[in-house]
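A.,

Following up on our hallway conversation. Structure tokens first:
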């Protein structure tokens, strides 16, 4: 049950209604909801426009002015929702990482083996960043440089937590293989996780921004496939024991 003061200072019950059923006028709750929807719509417009700019031009070349122009809003309107270009980019980054997680939510369903799950994860990861090169660039920057965007600690921590969910998925895959006795070579989940993480990111970084554009995708895919094959062989091979 909710109440709001009217102009005559009477308490008006606004529970579950935003219009006067006889007059059709929008009540206080309805106006609030409409304003909230409009704010969310504008925020979404800004983020979509900014993402297009960031992915097309790169982080450095984009300005708040260019985002405002693409979003068809004033520069002042942008600052009503975000403090800086860096904060906008951080929100775009968080949303994109969450999109990746949506793609791997069902990765364990209908899996024939832990090796299959690992290969599927690597393929999704590779496909994602082949299409989101600027996103990959800034993620790698985050790994080697603390808070490179100079954003608030709260937002920076949010990015780190979101990114760590990916690391958690990799750990779950290794644990799945151990539980099924498919990965006798995995003696240390954390070490194996770091090795796979380094393998994927290293190959993508090596080929994604160098060499002929028309052969980049094929080189990334083939190198990931070859490296993953060697990696899985190590996981599925029981280590030798001293007699």
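Then the amino acids I'd put at each of the 243 positions:
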């Amino acid at each position: 049950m909710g109440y709001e003061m009217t102009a005559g200072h009477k308490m008006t019950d606004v529970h579950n209604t935003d219009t006067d059923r006889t007059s059709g006028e929008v009540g206080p709750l309805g106006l609030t909801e409409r304003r909230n929807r409009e704010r969310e719509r504008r925020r979404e417009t800004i983020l979509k426009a900014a993402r297009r700019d960031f992915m097309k031009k790169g982080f450095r070349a984009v300005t708040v002015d260019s985002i405002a122009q693409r979003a068809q809003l004033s520069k002042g309107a942008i600052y009503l929702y975000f403090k800086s270009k860096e904060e906008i980019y951080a929100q775009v980054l968080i949303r994109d990482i969450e999109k990746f997680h949506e793609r791997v939510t069902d990765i364990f369903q209908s899996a024939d083996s832990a090796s299959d799950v690992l290969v599927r994860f690597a393929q999704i990861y590779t496909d994602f960043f082949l299409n989101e090169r600027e996103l990959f660039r800034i993620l790698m920057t985050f790994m080697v440089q603390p808070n490179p965007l100079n954003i608030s600690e709260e937002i920076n921590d949010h990015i780190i937590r979101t990114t760590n969910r990916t690391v958690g998925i990799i750990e779950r895959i290794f644990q799945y293989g151990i539980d099924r006795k498919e990965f006798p070579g995995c003696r240390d989940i954390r070490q194996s996780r770091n090795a796979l993480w380094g393998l994927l990111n290293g190959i993508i970084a090596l080929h994604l921004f160098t060499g002929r554009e028309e052969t980049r995708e094929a080189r990334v895919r083939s190198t990931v496939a070859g490296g993953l094959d060697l990696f899985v062989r190590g996981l599925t091979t029981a280590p030798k024991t001293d007699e």
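Confidence is low (pLDDT under 50) at residues 1-23. Curious whether your intuition agrees with the design.

B.
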